[in-house]
Amino acid sequence: MFDRIAGVYDLLNQVMTVGLHHKWRRRAADLAQAGPNTHVLDVATGTGDLAIEMAGRGANVIGSDFSEEMLLHARDKAPAITWEWANAMELPYKDDRFDASTVGFGARNFDDLARGVAEMARVVRPGGKVVILEITNPTRPPLSTFFNVWFDHVVPALGKVAGESEAYEYLPNSVKRFPAPDGLAAVMDGAGLRDIRWILTAGGIIALHVGTV
């Protein structure tokens, strides 16, 4: 499914978020403390926008994904970055290798969320950061009403226009299954992370979590 949507992924991201996803990725890069002389792993990198943001700050970045088509688009956008195939459930990197690991809008696709977060923590050195940027469900109207209409009706319609109705019916369902911010924080705590905090933005639709290894 992810291979199939790779060609329309960037366009639909832009439309669905009115371009705001770049702002959210910048905030994730801030939390990861990405900069010169840092080594960062971006897990489930997709077409690479978060990895590109961090590389633009001087970080040495590896973007990994299990979709070869997504990686092809990432390589086209930023050939100087290292893009590697990897399964988030079994990351092929040594313990303590990176200063930070990040995932932008990919954690809800992990087969096993706890295992994926634990893998992200394993490959980061003590004192480094694990950052998760994800969509979350607002609980108070009118935003919760708008959110439900947007994700249950508008997003699948956009997917249908793009010829990928299955994938963009999957998106709202994956968001609904994903833990609330406090639930994700509990998963991060279970992975051994400390000093966990989260920021809600976009009226509570977007959550950015950060924890220290």
- Indicate the radius of gyration in whole angstroms: 16 Å
Q: Strand-and-helix sequence, N→C?
A: HHEHEHEEHEHHHEE
Count the strands?
7
CATH topology name, in short, is: Rossmann fold
Distance between the termini: 33 Å
Helical content (DSSP H or I, runs of 4+): 40-55%
**Helix segment tally:** 8
At CATH's second level, what is the architecture?
A: 3-Layer(aba) Sandwich
Mean pLDDT: 87
Structure classification: alpha/beta
Low-confidence spans: pLDDT under 50, at least 5 residues? none
Commentary on this structure:
This protein has eight helices and seven strands. It is α/β, with parallel strands linked by helices. It has one domain (2-137, 179-212): Vaccinia Virus protein VP39 (Rossmann fold, 3-Layer(aba) Sandwich), CATH 3.40.50.150. Helix 1 crosses helix 4 and helix 2 (21-32) packs across helix 3. The longest helix is centred in the last third of the chain and has 19 residues, at 143-161. The radius of gyration is 16 Å and the shape is globular. It starts with a helix and ends with a strand. 43% of the residues are buried.
